[in-house]
Amino acid sequence: MALERATRNITSDKDVFEISGPTYLTSLNWNSTHHQRSVAACLVQAVYILERDRQENLEGKEALAPAWWEAFHFELTRKLVDDADFSIFGAIFEYKPPVSILSSSLANAPRFVIAFRGTLNKAASVNRDLTLDLHLIQNALHQTSRFEIAMQAVRNLVSAVGSSNIWLSGHSLGSAVASLAGRNMAKMGIFLNTFLFNPPFFSAPIERIKDKNVKQGIRIATSLVTAGLSFALKSKQQVRSTTAEDTFAILSSWIPNLFVNPSDHICSEYIGYFEHRRNMENMGVGIIEKLATQNSLGDLFLRSLGKESEPIHLLPSANLTVNLSPSPDFKQAHGIHQWWRADLHLQTKKFTY
Predict the structure, then answer these.
(1) How far apart are CA 220 and CA 279, in angstroms?
(2) Contact 160, 91 (CB under 8 A)
(3) Structural fold of domain 20-202+253-286+310-351
(4) How many angstroms separate the CA atoms of 67 and 4, rounded?
(5) I need a surface site. Which of 39, 188, 293, 321 has the fewest CB within 10 A?
(6) pLDDT in tens, 80-90
(7) Which H/E stretch holds residue 301?
(8) Residue 187: which residues within 8 A CB-CB, separation 6 or more?
(9) Any one Gene Ontology biological process term (predicted)?
(10) 243-267 burial by CB neighbour count: b if 16+ within 10 A, else e?
(11) What are phi and psi of 75, to 5 degrees?
């Protein structure tokens, strides 16, 4: 019934599960990182289509979204609604497999997944989404009501069922929401399994420079400047700097899963961020990079003016997965749809602080 429902009122190929969804996943192996990634991405897609259904007044049998969670035996338990424009920006899904499914991998299955969509180019929601994108660039996402709604939903669910079987998942702006929620929980010693697809990393597009020597030289120079300014600011604001270092150390035990595409300038800097840190350690100057990696020039400037600013895009640790498959344009490089394809050429590395 789920696949049948998805064929009605087709607005684009992306809405049709049997065209875009991973129909090859007829049975899930929760020990497989590929299956985990695919399901986490599909549930984010479900949130996108939930909001599309709302705007196009598609309900009941006409709704397109249910196919994206029912195919994997999930149930929608709650929609997360923005209080400014009443758009659906997130959802909580509960995994309820039929009793006929007996698998040793079920131990690694989530009980709940909280998924967050990114910016949706639809008239009824795009203005609010773009406003939140601006807040994100200014490191002020935590001050928005949308994030407060998301954070409260995460806290309430963890309080009710515990943290070991809750996943966070998000794409683009939604991955920033999921990342910030995961950070806040990690500060309390609660480490949620987190899937961040095309997470924003706002900086100069150094990763797009083709010449490796030039690129490395710029990164080294940036690290030296950032570390120097951070040290100078630390001398003036000893308490604030020590707290920042302590926070970064606490967060190091939280290892989110990052999924980036080198052709996507919104997230590609994560590749250079983690690789450069490892290169600096190999060069014997890891102490400099240790200071630089937890600071950004923009946030240092704000702190010098006495303003509180935490660079939420800087992560101590991560499982970084890079999609090395060709992407013909930015739309495909940044899209959520790439992450459940069966023919991906992926490279995964673990980075710890």
Answers:
(1) 10
(2) no
(3) Rossmann fold (3.40.50)
(4) 8
(5) 188
(6) 999 999 999 99
(7) helix 297-304
(8) 247, 250, 251
(9) lipid metabolic process
(10) ebeebbeebeebbbbbbbbbbbebb
(11) -120, 145
